[in-house]
Amino acid sequence: MMACNKTLLGVPLNASAHVPCPNHTALPTPLRILLAIIMLFMIAVGFLGNAIVCLIVYQKPAMRSAINLLLATLASSDIMLSLFCMPFTAVTVITVEWNFGAHFCRVSAMLYWFFVLEGVSILLIISVDRFLIIVQRQDKLNPHRAKIMIALSWAFSFCISFPSVIGWTFVEFPSRAPQCVLGYTEFPADRAYAVMLIVAIFFIPFSIMLYSYLCILNTVRRNTVRIHNHVESVCLNQVSKLGLVGLQKPHQMNVDMSFKTRAFTTILILFVGFSFCWLPHTVFSLMSVFSRRFYYSPSFYATSTCVLWLSYLKSVFNPVIYCWRIKKFREACLEFLPKTFKIFPKVPGRTKRRIRPSTIYVCSEHQSAV
After folding, report:
1. Which residues are CB-neighbours of 66 under 8 A, at least 6 positions away?
2. pLDDT surpasses 60 at 184
3. Of 77-81, 163-167, 295-299, which range is least confident?
4. What is the CATH number of the domain that holds 219?
5. Is 353 contained in some domain?
6. What is the pLDDT of residue 166?
7. Can you name the residues that pair with 172 across neighbouring β-strands?
8. Which of 79, 101, 232, 247 has CA atoms 20 to 30 A from the CA of 310?
9. Main localisation, per the record (predicted)?
10. Is residue 258 part of a domain?
């Protein structure tokens, strides 16, 4: 185990950082083994689940819409995260020691930020697209434009994450963390890059997505009230024409708003999952860079292990949401399963007629008549 006062991948610490730190408090062995087993399960689910998402979009031309191309890109970034980052973290959780060399330490840190930033960029694009469609009534994103946005997001993510591999910031061996993490530093340039990285990954996307979803929620609420009032006014006009004898509660006056809210609700759940998984990691990274007391505390290793494990949970979270919320993805997943796994027969569920967003339900004269 490396001492805390050693150099950071060959780059010496500033004088104020040459402070011996107490031995870190590693997690108990049974808990470390349990976390490693859970991480292996997460790797399998994250890889297989996201691979099915990509395969569905690739094999089914009808699924190659702009939003599905974005979801497939999000799944691709999660696949890369599951294959190139999570296994090394799982091994380090068990051994409590980094065994993959100094150079790969920087490479793994760069890949971690790269794939995470790409996934966040795709979520941001989807959120803005939903905002334009529902609030601004502008459907500007087609498959061609989606491909351009995807290419730009990959390039942007690479440009932001690449400096960490060439030594533009302090990335320490995992002597106090199961993965190469941002270390404490007092150099202004290193702190500036760390802040830029964290702001690009969390604060800017979170602020834009939060604003977009609040506007969408407000628009959906106002539209629901407007349609409900329109339905009631139409029904009352029909009742006045028929007289009191024709007064009867219309059959099925419910306004089906699922055509507007279901896709938005799915994206909102992805946003909540992103916030839940990444807010602790953001706070942890900022405190690691700016707080010497926190960085050299004995509990740093246990805290970093839990925070990193939670950040990886997002790659498993997304495909589960797709299969739960998106019917076409769920049906396509069942098609990829071998027949031996299809134990339960397919039960026909209640289906709803698809309607256009411009459709308004009103009471007909037949419904209002006696």
Report:
1. 129, 141, 142, 143, 145, 146
2. yes
3. 163-167
4. 1.20.1070.10
5. no
6. 74
7. 181
8. 101
9. membrane
10. yes
Q: Each residue of 224-260: pLDDT tens digit? A: 665 555 545 545 455 455 544 444 444 443 444 444 4
What the block records as the tokens of 370 is 């006696």
| Sign of CA pseudo-dihedral 135, 140, 143, 148 | negative
pLDDT of residue 63: 77
Buried b (16+ CB within 10 A) or exposed e, 61-88: eebeebbbbbbbbbbbbbbbbbeebbeb
Q: Is the pLDDT of residue 114 over 90?
A: yes
Instruction: Give the C-alpha distances (Å, rounded to integers) separating 82 from 209, 220, 260, 261.
Output: 25, 36, 33, 31
Indicate whether 244 belongs to any domain: yes
Residue 4 CA: distances (Å) to CA of 170, 202, 235, 293: 14, 29, 75, 13
In tens, the pLDDT along 298-314 reads: 888 888 888 988 899 88
Q: Which residues have C-beta within 8 Å of that of residue 263, sequence separation ≥ 6?
A: 67, 130
**Tokens, residue 359:** 């459709």
Rounded Cα distance between 239 and 245, Å, is 9
Tokens of 308: 């990193």
Q: What is the mean pLDDT of residues 282-292?
A: 90
315 is in which domain, residue-wise?
23-333
* CB contact at 8 A, 61 and 92: no
Instruction: Give a yes or no: residue 355 inside a domain.
Output: no
